[in-house]
């Protein structure tokens, strides 16, 4: 038995980038930041921020593009996926992403788009097989 699950609450680092595959399926990508704060041995406050690349497919992706914006707080539940690609210079690059299965818009943040404080989801959740093959990904 194995488990691949990530649960994050963080703030968007930029507006979602929504594109469509050749078959018309939406895919939204955006980074979110999570921070942890602690006191070190000297009693000084320390903070570390981690950035997470989020990928949201289908209707949820379209909804994210419509209502989320930089600074907005969001709950993300999904699986961790690593992949490689060749950049414009031909160098092999590696990226780790969270493939979201559940997105919930939360209050707070600097987002300016108005949206209901409701879950972005529905019948177009990611299928058990995951997103389309890499050759169908627009970026």
Largest sheet: 5 strands, mixed, barrel
Strand content: over 45%
What is the string of SSEs from the N terminus onward? Answer: EEEEHEEE
Strand order of the largest sheet: 1-3-4-6-5
Kindly state the percentage of residues in helix.
Answer: under 10%
Question: What structural class results from the helix and strand content?
Answer: mainly beta
Pick out the low-confidence regions: 112-135
The N- and C-terminal alpha carbons lie at a distance of 33 Å
Mean pLDDT: 84
**Annotation, overall tally of beta strands:** 7
Shape: globular
Give the radius of gyration.
16 Å
Summed up, the helix count is 1
Model description:
This protein is mainly β and 139 residues long. It has one helix at residues 58-67; strands at 6-12, 17-20, 26-39, 45-57, 73-86, 92-105, 119-120. A hairpin with a 5-residue loop joins strand 3 and strand 4.
Key descriptive features of the protein:
49% strand; 139 residues; 7% helix; five-stranded mixed beta barrel; mainly beta; single chain
Summarize the structure.
The chain is mostly beta strands and 139 residues long.
Give the secondary structure arrangement, pairings included.
Layout: E1 6-12, E2 17-20, E3 26-39, E4 45-57, H1 58-67, E5 73-86, E6 92-105, E7 119-120
Parallel strand pairs: 4-6
Antiparallel strand pairs: 1-3, 1-5, 2-3, 3-4, 5-6, 6-7
């Amino acid at each position: 038995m194995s488990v691949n699950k990530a649960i994050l609450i963080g703030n968007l680092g930029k507006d979602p980038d929504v594109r469509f595959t050749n078959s018309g399926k939406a895919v939204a990508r955006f980074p979110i930041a999570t921070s942890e704060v602690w006191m070190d041995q000297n009693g000084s406050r320390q903070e570390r921020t981690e950035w997470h690349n989020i990928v949201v497919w289908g209707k949820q992706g379209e909804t994210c593009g419509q209502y989320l914006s930089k600074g907005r707080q969001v709950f993300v539940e999904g699986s961790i996926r690593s992949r490689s690609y060749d950049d414009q210079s031909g160098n092999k690059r590696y990226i780790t992403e969270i493939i979201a299965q559940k997105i919930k818009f939360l209050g707070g943040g600097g987002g300016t788009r108005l949206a209901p404080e409701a879950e972005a989801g529905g019948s177009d959740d990611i299928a058990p097989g995951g997103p389309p093959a890499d050759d169908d990904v627009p970026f």
